[in-house]
Design brief:
heterodimer; A: 65 residues; mainly alpha; 58% helix; B: alpha/beta; 3 domains; seven-stranded mixed beta sheet; five-stranded antiparallel beta sheet; 15 helices; globular
């Protein structure tokens, strides 16, 4: 059991199933669009300075070898 | 561990897993036995190590381990800024940072058990997660418990700001646990219901929350959410937030194009400031009303830590971006209105310190206030001795620029007083000096060449 020290909100816990479904559809269609745009050479450069959501773990793997 | 010289940090009481405390001058973190299992798992799996190495989580040293307490000593942070003091860009990056950590945690069998905006601050030019005990084990197919908190602390305020401007962030001052979902929903324009991301994450959430608000006995079964589905929520929020922007930001013009003096004068002012500041050899410097950091940048390579604040959120955003691009890791930018500095909020009004308290703790060696006094005095109607008192409460040396009545900006501010213009006859160099000499000694005084402005170097009498 995870220790619960604040109320996560019941509605918020239930709604996540719907949120995730909508997100899934959106991500899928974006993925398709990305491939199409990439094929047509229409991809734009992102000017935001924050990098991607995925953490690059390559260096860490090397170290633990 | 000595217990006599320690006292708990005022902001650290919500989470039973542990707490922060002051041990003399050092800030440490105590972990209670209730969290040992999680802590050891996070430590042994190199989870902490990876996060710290990638500058996602603040670094820490394990100071002591006993049966009833583990003590960590985190890397010190020079100055804590709060969400209501961030520019849009910074707020956005803090949100993305939180999602990035949650996604990585999930992939390693952990979760962020809370997603408070106060768990992130800015350190060495980038957002950093500062609550080391915010992690817990992921349980198969459970929804993200911190989801609602993420919406009220991050997603909601950001979406609101994209429609209404960054003034929205100040709502966090009166809502320490985030803006209520219902309020976010009601403040958003109707057309946002057409966005599937905003509709589900805000409007539908608000509806579901009020529908289930009377489940006093916690009877309703909590729905399941697959691992993949949770990742979808996080990925989609990340993509959406990354693309958010505000109108103000794109309109940010070059302020210094609008100044009333020429390039030579501009350069002359820079040289004067550089010389004066360098001769004082400061360790910490703050530029109040420093716009995008143009003048602070003249000394950024000579001073170990530099803060630039401005009332204009766009200027702060611009400064933050520049600092990231130039890799000026000793530059910290945040939004502040001198006439209404951030108050102490939360329990006992001490959970989040007031700006003045934080400035006093930071205790800058040099404070700069350039092209600011005429705004404080003429727009804010603040008498000279009162603004002097404000600066004296935290500054050792003060580099302050006084635009005389002949300066075109001052003239324009005075003309706008119309029939009350005579009430401001006190705005002159002599009264300025008298007012400031209550608290400061005048060390240097020089006219900025080619302008109607005088630069002063003042030393605190206290």
């Amino acid at each position: 059991m995870i220790f619960l020290y604040f109320d996560p909100g019941l509605g918020a816990m239930i709604v996540q199933a719907v949120v995730a479904a909508a997100a899934g559809v959106l991500l899928f269609s974006k993925g398709v669009m990305y491939k199409v745009k990439g094929f047509l050479g229409l991809l734009k450069q992102d000017d935001d300075t924050y990098d991607s959501i995925d953490l690059d773990e390559k260096d860490d793997a090397d170290e633990t070898k | 561990m000595k217990q006599n010289n320690t006292h708990p940090h005022q902001a650290s009481f919500r989470d039973p897993s542990g707490y922060m405390f002051h041990d003399g001058d050092v800030l440490r973190r105590a972990i209670n036995p209730i969290y040992f299992k999680q802590y050891n798992a996070l430590k042994d799996s190199a989870f902490f190590k990876t996060l710290i190495k990638n500058r996602l989580l603040i670094a820490h040293q394990e100071t002591s381990v006993s049966e009833d307490q583990i003590v960590l000593t985190p890397e010190p942070i020079a100055f804590i800024t709060n969400p209501y003091e961030w520019s849009f860009e910074q707020y956005k990056h803090a949100a993305l940072h939180t999602l990035k950590i949650q996604k990585y945690a999930l992939s390693k069998g952990f979760i962020l058990k809370d997603a408070s905006a106060y768990n992130v601050t800015f350190h060495k030019g980038s957002p950093i997660f500062i609550d080391t005990l915010s992690f817990d084990f992921y349980e198969q197919d459970t929804p993200w418990r911190a989801y609602k908190q993420f919406i009220t602390h991050f997603f909601g305020p950001l979406v609101l700001a994209s429609y209404h401007g960054t003034e929205i962030f100040k709502m966090l001052q009166s809502h320490i646990d985030g803006i209520p979902v219902k309020l976010i929903s009601s403040l958003l324009p109707g057309k946002t219901k057409l966005s599937s991301t905003i509709f589900t994450n805000i409007h539908l959430l608000a509806k579901m929350e009020s529908k289930h608000s009377e489940d006093y006995k916690a009877e309703t079964k909590i729905a399941k959410l697959s691992f993949k589905a949770q990742n979808n929520i996080i990925d989609n929020l990340f993509d959406f937030i990354k693309k958010l922007s505000i109108k103000e930001e794109t309109e940010w013009g070059d302020y210094y194009d609008k100044t009333n003096y020429n390039d030579a004068a501009f350069q002359g002012k820079k040289t004067l400031i550089e010389d004066w500041v360098t001769s004082l050899n400061p360790q910490r410097l703050i530029d109040i009303g420093g716009n995008d950091g143009t003048f602070a940048r003249t000394v950024v390579h000579k001073v170990p830590h530099v803060i630039v604040t401005d009332i204009d959120s766009n200027a702060v955003a611009h400064n933050y971006k520049q600092a990231q691009q130039n890799k000026e890791t000793n530059m910290l930018a945040f939004v502040c209105d001198v006439l209404q500095p951030a108050p102490g909020i939360g329990l006992n009004n001490t959970e989040r310190n007031s700006l003045v308290e934080r400035l006093q703790n930071y205790s800058p060696d040099v404070t700069m206030a350039l092209a600011l006094i005429h705004h404080i005095t003429l727009s804010g109607n603040v008498p000279f001795d009162r603004s002097a008192q404000f600066f004296a409460s935290f500054s050792k040396y003060l580099v302050i620029e006084f635009p005389t009545r002949e300066d075109s900006w001052v003239t324009s501010l005075l003309v706008r007083k119309r029939e009350f213009i005579n009430h401001f006859d006190f705005y002159n160099q002599a009264s300025f000096e008298t007012g400031y000499q209550h608290y400061f000694d005048i060390e240097k005084k020089e006219v900025v060449p080619g302008t109607k402005r005088v630069l002063y170097l003042l030393k605190n009498k206290g």
